[in-house]
Amino acid sequence: MTIAGFFRLAVNTVVAPRDVARLLLAMNLPSQALWLAFALVIVLNTLMFSVSLLLVPADDMFGPVLASPTVFGTMLGLSVGALIVAVTLCGRPLGGTASFAQIAILVIWLQALRVLMQGVVAVLGPVSLFLSGVVISAASVLGIWIFVNFIDVAHETGSLLRAGLVLLLAVVGMMLGLSLIFSLLGVQTGGIPGYV
Q1: Using an 8 Å Cβ cutoff, are 188 and 179 in contact?
Q2: Band (35; pLDDT cuts 50, 70, 90)
Q3: CA 196 to CA 190: how far, in whole Å?
Q4: How far apart are CA 151 and CA 141, in angstroms?
Q5: Cβ contact 38:104 at 8 Å
Q6: For every residue of the chain, which 3-state class applies, written as one string?
Q7: Residue 160: which pLDDT band, with cuts at 50, 70 and 90?
Q8: How far apart (Å, rounded) are the C-alpha atoms in residues 107 and 189?
Q9: Does the pLDDT of residue 107 top 60, yes or no?
Q10: How far apart, in whole angstroms, are the C-alpha atoms of residue 79 and residue 49?
Q11: Is the pLDDT of residue 143 over 50?
C-alpha cells in the first residue's frame, strides 16, 4: 500500500466505514500477514506514544508504565489482542459470525489509524494541550463509531445497536480480564485500557 493509498483509505474509513470494513475483510489475509501487521502497529503505536511523551510529559498518574516503551508495548499488545478475542467471542451469543482473523484485520487497521492520530497529537501537543485534547476526544468518539460499524459488518448483526452491545460487552470483559491478570503480575495499568 502506498502512502497516498493509506491516507485515501483512512479518509474513506471516516466517511464510509462499512465499505472499508468489507474491503478489509475481502482481503482475506493469511495468518502470517496478520501477525506481522499486528506487531507492526503495536511497535509504531508505542514509538509514536513515546515521542509524544518526550514532547509533552505525561501526568504522574500514568506511573512507571509509560517510562518503559517495552513495558508499554507489551501491555498494549496484550490489550489489543484481548480486544480481538473479546469482540469475536462476545459477538457469538448475539448471532455474530466473524472469525478471529476477520476481527483482527479490522482492529489492526484501527490501530494503524491510531498511529496517524498520535502523529497529529505529537505535533499539536507542544503548540496547544487543549487542541490536542480536543483531537484525542474527537478521534476517540469517531473511533467508537467506526468500530461499531466494523463489528456490524463483520459479525453481520444487522443492527448498530447490537454491534454496540457487542463492543460494550467486549470492552468490559477485556478490562476485567486484563485488570485481573495485571494485578496478579503486580503491574499498574495506568491509562493503557483507555489508550486502546
Answers
A1: no
A2: very high
A3: 12
A4: 15
A5: yes
A6: CCHHHHHHHHHHHHHCHHHHHHHHHHHCCCHHHHHHHHHHHHHHHHHHHHHHHHHCCCCHHHHHHHHCHHHHHHHHHHHHHHHHHHHHHHHHHHCCCCCHHHHHHHHHHHHHHHHHHHHHHHHHCCCCHHHHHHHHHHHHHHHHHHHHHHHHHHHCCCCHHHHHHHHHHHHHHHHHHHHHHHHHHCCCCCCHHHHC
A7: very high
A8: 21
A9: yes
A10: 15
A11: yes
C-alpha cell at 78: 496484550
Structural domain spans, the chain: 32-53+66-195
CA-CA distance, 192 to 185, in Å (whole number)? 15
State the Cα torsion 172-70-105-27 to the nearest 10°: 180
Whether residue 93 is predicted with pLDDT greater than 80 in this model: the reply is yes
Nearest to 83 by CA among 113, 65, 48, 108: 108
Q: What pLDDT shows up at residue 70? A: 87
Residue from 106, 107, 115 nearest 45 by CA: 115
- What residues contact 172, with CB distance under 8 A and at least 6 apart? none
